[in-house]
Structure formats: structure tokens, C-alpha cells
């Protein structure tokens, strides 16, 4: 962060923000941007209304949108991008594929021919730099963050010298739509995309259902018929996937049954394996990127060297991924003894479900975990964003999510929270736009 930009940011805050050479210091000392919560609510309501969603969603989802942005230095953004590039380099090797597929479900061995859609790379910003804590294949919030970014921009008094990372909000929707087209054309070259089904269990009951509505509208603006449905509403017949009388070309998959193993997913799985429908994200992408056991490979120096990737990629991953190991009957006692320095995650986990900080574990939960497949990851404390004002500030935890496709970062957003994990239940917390220095 340049001293000029820091001075401008400080001027926008009155006396609240102190001139600093580190943009991340603004997370501790700057309360000005977006603290006009009523202006933020009006901005969100207006943007949602223009997209056909009720402005009341700001009230019904009161902890979805944070009241302040997160500041991340361009240096840290570049470091996170290098980590993502290094992951992609390893994932592209046959050595990694063989290892990851060895513990993957059978359906993951089918290659539909596309990368598998948007990925969420979640980082904690440690004192020594960003640390990649996990990768997800169906990361929610991308379109919602575009809405939020515009609202923050509209109510910030002064963001001179600051830019959203890595692109401004209005460009995000176009970038996301291009990802769906890339997935489609990778599997159906030369065929026009006519219809999309956004699929999740009981979609209207999902907390991020408003984002499904935004995606439906995004497809509609490009002349593509889009529907939102439960997998039980789908049928496979006559060489197609159908919802009622409507044939489905593309399934935007928001299910957390990543292997399509439940009976309700049978028509979708059959159509997918028969190449009768394009699906993204798909089971192979989850097995390659999001199975938490793969993190044990990405932080293992001997394994990384055996892939043949460049030395700088190996160094980047070893420096940036906390040590992770699979929990087994043989190491359970050792892991319990050092649990206070560890975080435990189910191998196929999502949304922080059944994930535990070791220092919060009870013996009862520990015994229950023995029946599942877990990884133990070295604990990396999340960074913090102070909210509330200089006299009444409280510290919220923060992680930084990079939304990326084929190794290219399309959007960066933060999630602010209290407690063990992100939960969208924290007053003042939720998704937050990320601001950085202008290049």
C-alpha cells in the first residue's frame, strides 16, 4: 500500500484510520467504509430489487452481508494466486491423479471432459503469509458478492486508491457466465446451450436460495431457460434429462452429495454418465480438488517431488499449506495428545459441518469421529477484522476465499464470523468485499 493511498484512505475516515504502510492494518483501525449501515441496506435492497429479488432479503438474511469490507494487500493476493497456480500444476500430473482417485468413489473415474466449474480456495492470512486451509468445488456466494460489492461502493464515502480484488463488481457476472459457457463447450462442442437446471435438495429451504434466483436471472438475460429444482423432480428418459416436459441441457450442481450416491440422484447420475447432460461441478472435480485427504498430498514434499512439477511450485505449496494428515487408528492417540494445535475436518466435508477445533473437542465427539474419515490440519489462526467503531470495536475472525476457474482467480471475498467456523450467524459478519491497492 502506497503512502499516498494510505493517506487518502485515512482522509476518508477522518481521524479514525491512521496513515499506515500496510493495507491489512486498516482491518484493525479503519471503521469508516460502509459503517453507514442504513446506506448499505438501501444499496443492497436497490440492487436486489433491480434483479427481481425482494429487498426484505436484507432482513431475512441479516448475517449474510458484512457491514464492512476486508482489506488485503496486493502482495498477499499475488501470493494466493501463486498457490492456486501451484495446485493446478500438481493436479495436472498423472502421479496426483492416481493418488487422488485411489480413495475417490467410482463415479469420479468418469471424465466428462471439463475442469468442473468454479472452485473456492479458502485462505487464512497468517503473519508469515496466506495459508490455504481447503478447496471447495461448489463455493456459494459468488453472485451475492457481486451484489454486495456494488452496494458497498455506493455507500462508501471515499475509496480513493482502493479497488475491488481482482475485478470490479460489474465485471463479475460476465466472468461467471463465461465459466458456464466454458464448461458447456468443453463437453458439447458446437452445440448451443438452451436450458439449465439449478439443482439442490429442497432448494427454497437453502440459506443461499437467493443466489439461485440470481443465477436463474443471469441465464435468462442470455436467452437461456433456467429452472431451480430438487433432484427428485428430474427424470432420465429418451436419451435426455427432463424436468417435467422440459429437456435439460446443463445442470448447475449445488448438491452436497458429491458422488451422486443417494437414490434421489439416480436419474441425474445416469444422465451424467451417459453424456446426456452436462453437469458442473461434477463428481470428478470434487474428488480431485475438494476431498480433504488431497491436502495431505499437497503438503508432502516427497510426493510433490515425485510429480515432477517445478521446484518453485513445490516450495510454494510447502510454505502455504498447513501440515495435514489422515486420521487413522494408528495415529489417533498422538493426534488427541496434540489436538490443541490441530483442526479436524471430515474428508468429504462442506460448509464447516462436523469440523472441529481440537481445543474444543470433547471425548464424546472424539469417539464419534472414529467412525468417519477425518484429516487433522495444523491450526492456523484466522486473521481479524475489527468492526463497530474505534471505542466499541470487536474483532471478527476472517477467511479469504478466492473463486477461481482453471487456475485463474475471478473474485476474492472474505467471510467474517465468530466461533469455530464460518456460520453466517454473527451480527456484523457474513460475506465482505475485499479491497486492495489499485495497480
Spell out the key features of this protein.
439 residues; alpha+beta; eight-stranded mixed β-sheet; four-stranded parallel β-sheet; 19 strands; 23% strand; disordered N terminus
Could you walk me through the main structural features you see in this protein, from its secondary elements to its overall organization?
The chain is of the alpha+beta class and 439 residues long. The chain has one domain (23-293, 383-437). It is built from 16 helices and 19 strands. The strands form four sheets. Strands 1, 2, 3, 4, 16, 17, 18 and 19 form an eight-stranded mixed β-sheet that branches. It has a four-stranded parallel β-sheet with strand order 6-5-10-11, covered by helices on one side. The protein has a four-stranded antiparallel β-sheet with strand order 12-15-13-14, with no helix packed on it. Helix 10 (266-273) links the parallel strand 10 and strand 11 (278-280). The longest helix has 19 residues, at 169-187. The chain is globular and about 60 Å long.
Topology:
Elements: H1 3-12, H2 26-29, H3 37-50, H4 57-60, E1 70-71, H5 74-91, H6 94-102, E2 119-126, E3 129-136, H7 142-155, E4 162-164, H8 169-187, E5 195-199, H9 209-221, E6 225-229, E7 234-237, E8 240-243, E9 246-248, E10 250-253, H10 266-273, E11 278-280, H11 283-290, H12 294-298, H13 301-307, H14 311-320, E12 324-326, H15 332-337, E13 342-346, E14 356-357, H16 363-369, E15 374-378, E16 383-387, E17 394-405, E18 408-417, E19 430-437
Helix pairs in contact: 3-7, 5-14, 7-8
